[in-house]
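Figure S7 source data.
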Amino acid sequence: MPLVAFAHILFHLYKKVSHQAPRILLTGGAGYIGSHTFVKLREAGIEPVILDNFANSHPAVVDRLAQITGAPVLLERGDVLDQPFVEDVLRRHAPAGVIHLAGDKAVGESVAQPLKYFRSNIGGAISLLQAMEAVYLPVGALGAPLLVFSSSATVYGDPATVPITEDFPRGHTDPYGHTKLVIEEMLDAVRAAQPAWRIGVLRYFNPAGAHPSALIGEDPNGTPANLMPYLTQVAIGRLPHLRVFGGDYPTPDGTGVRDYIHIQDLADGHVVALRALQRTGESFTVNLGTGRGYSVLDVVKAFVDATGRPVPYRIVDRRPGDVAQCYADPSRAKALLGWEARHTLEQMCADAWRWQQRNPQGYATGAA
Ligand code: UD1
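Tokens for the predicted uridine-diphosphate-N-acetylglucosamine complex:
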């Protein structure tokens, strides 16, 4: 028997007898969604290995995660586009699966620099999938490849009606959304060609809020593009007022309606998705949303009620590319995974605000 194969067997025997928690590779694990998912995985007895290049996240996250969970963090600093590196990470940690969150996500930037997005998001997914193929697919290797992919409600483009079910036609309104759609299509093709793959596609609606400890939260680079971090920065005085994009949509109060989901619920969704793939071996695509739509003015009101802070706002022109309404029918996630969102919009506002107050400049000079 070749020495390498012998070493491999010894390694697996060691893993079986040592009571080591099963590992999961978490790409983009230092980001907003990744950091909250990390905590939920550890709480579930799973050991996440973070792969992150910190292009859009802060290294301080790692210490905060150790603080919350009370144990050191396994970190592989590097780029998901670097396929030999990803292969090496997979061979060394032998994770039971991969949760792939790494990627770029700023819609406006994707319109200005589409190639950056095609390269990082689509290129990153190809690199990861090929590394997984090389490590998991050969007979006698680690076992069937298992992947949870972070997709987005953006793959519904401009939906004809709401609530949105998973079988709505897919589309896109910008290059960022296009990359999510292409990756979903790639995953369809991979699964068709190689049925051993177990793939869970999670279509997120609008994540908001923070961990109740306020040690981790959303820390966007520059001026926030998304509503909740913009609101908290207005409330803390970093920005003068909220611009409400459009007051003439065909919605009850004329402002855009979205499905805001607490980051803790979203993070839970990853753990249950992983468990379901391991238990059933069946691939799936599910919406992760609450099923409730709130307008921009509903969110402003909930924020003021939850925090007692005034939020000056002005209604301005519509933002190009925005849709009037977007909210989920989350019943498939409940039926398949037994998952449903539990937190209210008020909790999202209160937790986002606590994070902002304790970390007025985000991770850079946070006081937590
Ligand atoms: C946006 C992206 C979406 C991405 C998601 C990630 C666009 C067009 N879409 O979704 O592809 O998956 O973020 O979280 O950017 N709003 C204001 N003022 C602001 C900011 C937002 O009025 O300063 C309004 C928007 O018009 C919208 C709602 O708030 O009605 C939510 O906006 P946002 O948080 O940017 O999320 P989406 O646009 O739904």
